[in-house]
């Protein structure tokens, strides 16, 4: 039965506008089990014919049948399947992958086999083949550590690992010395004796002397098809019956050698050791393998489970190939990832510093009082000139009381009166940045519930205008210098206030002001005893006219109806006036602080306060409000949004560097494709399909980017920690940023690695193998 039959095959190459015919109507057939030599001078078309027979190329016209199947017009991937299932190649220049061990070179065709055995069985098969080739001690050697003959044996083992029906050898002894050439040719004869069909392309008559048939080619035509010298000496090859899967049934095997190992021994070495040589084969050359199912590795040995399995073989084939390629170029891989490392590190650092700044800003704003609402008095106007918000005293303590009683969305409320002045203790003095009169609810509104020492003044102190106060940590440090201030008296505008508590540390505000530089006293004490302010422009609660200002009354001479009259009662001294303050009927406060029950209820609280003050201040619809409400939550949101926007701008700058790193990945991958063109051609020759090559180079790109992303994350985290350690800038670790870095790294690898991978997958195997 004909294993191979080609009918009137023509092949024409197009070089520019010129057609160059190479094969001109070749028709030959090759039976199962034959060893055929294709001979001819350079340019005769023998290599092109081998490419057609090896499914590396398609004929321009004519038909090619392999095991009865017409395959001349199959697509590239279908031809690759034929190569990996039925064909094995032995090249003149060996074409072994450099910096790759003998075992890995032999295993390469199995990576692309549709019926790939398990990793253990594949490794055992490779070991068995290398042992039969006499290379048991060279398994882990790379090609540069082996002689030419050893490299060719590795190439033969690689060609046999997929149990092919046809072995194609292109000038297999062209780069070998005569002694090694004889060993290789005798090996071919022994393989052919087991039923393997071998086609050898050569121009050497000595090589052709080992074949059963010699087909002479000249100018793309068959000039002769004669019986070879080997067949003339020993007769035609024994017939081999095909099994159902297309492989020949096991033929007769020579007797095992006498060393008990069953290893293959070259004829030349057998002769040197005294073995009996029969023709071109000795009786000690091939050990008879045990019985096996037809089509298995019985021709060259039986696969046995490996005793130990390399960890790398546990990876999927394509992943193992990609990672192995990167490991063989460690320095270049590391330098390639440098752009990704810097880009990801910049992204991580920018995100964490930005997030830390935003969180610090939110904490600082929250330290002023979370969900705090500030109700301010209205603006006074005179002669068309407005004096600004707060210049007209329109808020009263009763407004604060009603807000706390009637507004359900308000959790706490406190009026506030602001004062200023020098604080004196013993021979030390200090002017605090904040001096406020308020109620105990102030600490709840400001989230300032912790006291370092003592306690907050009470509502009874507010009602009685007691001369008590609480102070911040800065005042304690400046006035008492390590002493406990509890129970000590300080003087403010010559008013003695007893310190009953020390506030917990609060830190700086968003404006950089020290919140611990503060003095708090009951608002009645601050208004009646310290500041001595009157109601000014306060509105009467019952709708009456505003109370008069005593200072203004003294200045306004129109009020002095009787200038020469003497007072009926003696005037009080200043000390008497300070000790007996007279409450003004219509008392006003500067601001009212309120705390919403929650951030979600802040709009509701604002609406309730506005409605209540409209009612109390007799403000009609359409009339301008005499108060304003500021929502600290809105300020926090605005500042947070601004911080996020600045962080986004920094992130964009960092992403630009990441894109630059991606361009570097693409550039290096394109260089890698160019450098490894012959490797790509070799992988395609042993059965790799386009998707295998595409996937391999894409995985290499993604692995590079993921590795760079991991290094970039570590570098970015280290950078943020250094920023925090040396500059004390706030930083915040961001798990979403780390996860996004991995995703972005993989995306960069896919985006910038796809084109080089696609370009590699589109290479023609013949042109790739010829690439220098």
Give a description of the structure.
- The protein is rod-shaped.
- It contains 25 helices and 26 strands.
- Strands 13, 16, 17, 18, 19, 20, 21, 22, 23, 24, 25 and 26 form a twelve-stranded mixed sheet that branches. The chain has a six-stranded mixed sheet with strand order 6-7-8-3-9-10, with helices on both faces. It has a four-stranded antiparallel sheet with strand order 2-1-4-5, with helices on one face.
- The chain is 42% helix and 19% strand.
- Helix 12 runs antiparallel to helix 24 (735-761) and helix 13 packs across helix 20 (602-616).
- With 772 residues, the protein is an alpha+beta fold.
- The model is unreliable at 239-311 and 534-559 (pLDDT under 50).
| Largest pleated sheet | 12 strands, mixed
Broad shape = rod-shaped
How big a fraction of the residues is strand? 15-25%
What level of helicity do the residues show?
40-55%
- DSSP, total strands: 26
Unreliable residue runs: 239-311, 534-559
Radius of gyration, CA atoms, in whole angstroms: 48 Å
Tally of individual helices: 25
Q: Supply the helix-strand structural class.
A: alpha+beta
- Arithmetic mean of pLDDT: 79
* Cα-to-Cα separation, first versus last residue: 40 Å
């Amino acid at each position: 039965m004909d294993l191979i039959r080609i009918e009137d095959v023509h092949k024409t190459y197009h070089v520019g506008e010129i057609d160059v015919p190479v094969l001109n109507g070749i028709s030959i057939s090759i039976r199962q089990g034959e060893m055929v030599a294709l001979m001819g001078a350079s340019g005769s078309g023998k290599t092109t014919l081998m490419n057609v027979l090896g499914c590396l190329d398609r004929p321009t016209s004519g038909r090619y049948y392999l095991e009865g199947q017409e395959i001349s017009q199959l697509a590239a991937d279908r031809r690759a399947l034929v190569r990996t299932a039925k064909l094995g190649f032995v090249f003149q220049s060996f074409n072994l992958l450099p910096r790759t061990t003998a075992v890995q070179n032999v295993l390469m065709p199995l990576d692309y086999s549709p019926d790939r055995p398990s990793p253990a069985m594949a490794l055992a098969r490779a070991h068995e083949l290398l042992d039969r080739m006499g290379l048991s001690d060279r398994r882990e050697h790379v090609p540069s550590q082996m002689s030419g003959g050893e490299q060719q044996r590795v190439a033969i083992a690689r060609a046999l690992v997929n149990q092919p029906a046809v072995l194609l050898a292109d000038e297999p002894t062209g780069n070998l010395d005569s002694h090694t050439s004889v060993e290789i040719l005798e090996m071919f004869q022994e393989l052919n004796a087991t039923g393997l069909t071998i086609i050898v392309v050569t121009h050497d008559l000595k090589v052709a002397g080992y074949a059963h048939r010699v087909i002479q080619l000249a100018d793309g035509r068959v000039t002769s098809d004669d019986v070879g010298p080997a067949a003339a000496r020993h007769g035609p090859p024994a017939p081999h019956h095909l099994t159902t899967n297309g492989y020949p049934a096991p033929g007769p095997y020579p007797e095992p050698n006498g060393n008990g190992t069953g290893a293959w021994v070259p004829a030349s070495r057998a002769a040197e050791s005294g073995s009996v040589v029969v023709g071109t084969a000795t009786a000690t050359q091939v050990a008879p393998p045990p019985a096996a199912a037809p089509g298995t590795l019985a021709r060259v040995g039986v696969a046995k489970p490996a005793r130990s399995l390399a960890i790398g073989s546990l990876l999927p084939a394509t992943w193992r190939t990609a990672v192995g390629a990167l490991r063989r170029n460690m320095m270049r891989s590391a330098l390639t990832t440098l752009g990704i490392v810097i880009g990801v590190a910049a992204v991580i650092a920018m995100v964490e510093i930005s997030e830390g700044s935003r969180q610090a800003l939110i904490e600082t704003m929250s330290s002023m009082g979370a969900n705090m609402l500030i109700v301010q008095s209205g603006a006074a106007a005179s002669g068309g000139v407005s004096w600004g918000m707060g210049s007209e005293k329109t808020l009263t303590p009763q407004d604060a009381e009603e807000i706390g009683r009637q507004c359900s969305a308000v959790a706490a409320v406190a009026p506030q009166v602001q004062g200023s002045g020098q604080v004196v203790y013993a021979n030390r003095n200090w002017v605090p940045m904040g001096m406020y009169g308020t109620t105990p609810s102030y600490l709840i509104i400001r989230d300032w519930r912790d006291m370092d020492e003592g306690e907050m003044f009470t509502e009874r102190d507010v009602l009685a205008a007691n001369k008590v106060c609480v102070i911040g940590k800065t005042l304690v440090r400046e006035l008492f210098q390590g002493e406990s201030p509890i129970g000590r008296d300080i003087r403010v505008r010559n008013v003695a206030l007893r310190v009953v508590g020390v506030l917990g540390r609060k830190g700086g505000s968003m404006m950089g002001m020290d919140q611990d530089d503060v003095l708090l006293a009951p608002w009645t004490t601050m208004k009646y005893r310290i500041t001595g302010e009157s109601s000014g422009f306060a509105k009467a609660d019952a709708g009456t006219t505003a109370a008069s200002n005593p200072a203004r009354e003294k200045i306004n001479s129109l009020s002095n109806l009787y200038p020469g009259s003497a007072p009926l009662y003696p005037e009080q001294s200043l000390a008497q006036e300070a000790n007996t303050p007279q409450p003004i009927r219509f008392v006003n406060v500067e601001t009212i602080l309120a705390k919403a029950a929650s951030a979600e209820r802040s709009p509701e609280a604002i609406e309730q306060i506005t409605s209540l003050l409209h009612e109390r201040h007799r403000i009609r619809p359409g009339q301008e409000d005499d108060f304003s409400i500021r929502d600290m939550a809105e300020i926090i949101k605005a500042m947070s949004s601004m911080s996020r926007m600045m962080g986004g701008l920094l992130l964009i700058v960092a992403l630009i560097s990441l894109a630059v790193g991606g361009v570097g990945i693409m550039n290096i991958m394109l260089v890698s494709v160019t450098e490894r063109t012959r490797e790509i051609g070799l992988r395609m020759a042993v059965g790799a399909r386009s998707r295998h090559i595409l996937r391999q180079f894409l995985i290499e790109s993604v692995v590079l980017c993921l590795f760079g992303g991991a290094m970039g994350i570590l570098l970015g985290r280290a950078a943020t920690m250094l920023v925090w350690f040396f500059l004390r800038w706030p930083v915040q670790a961001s798990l979403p940023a780390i996860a996004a870095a991995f995703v972005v790294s993989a995306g960069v690898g896919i985006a910038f690695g796809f084109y080089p991978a696609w370009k590699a997958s589109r290479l023609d195997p013949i042109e790739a193998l010829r690439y220098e």
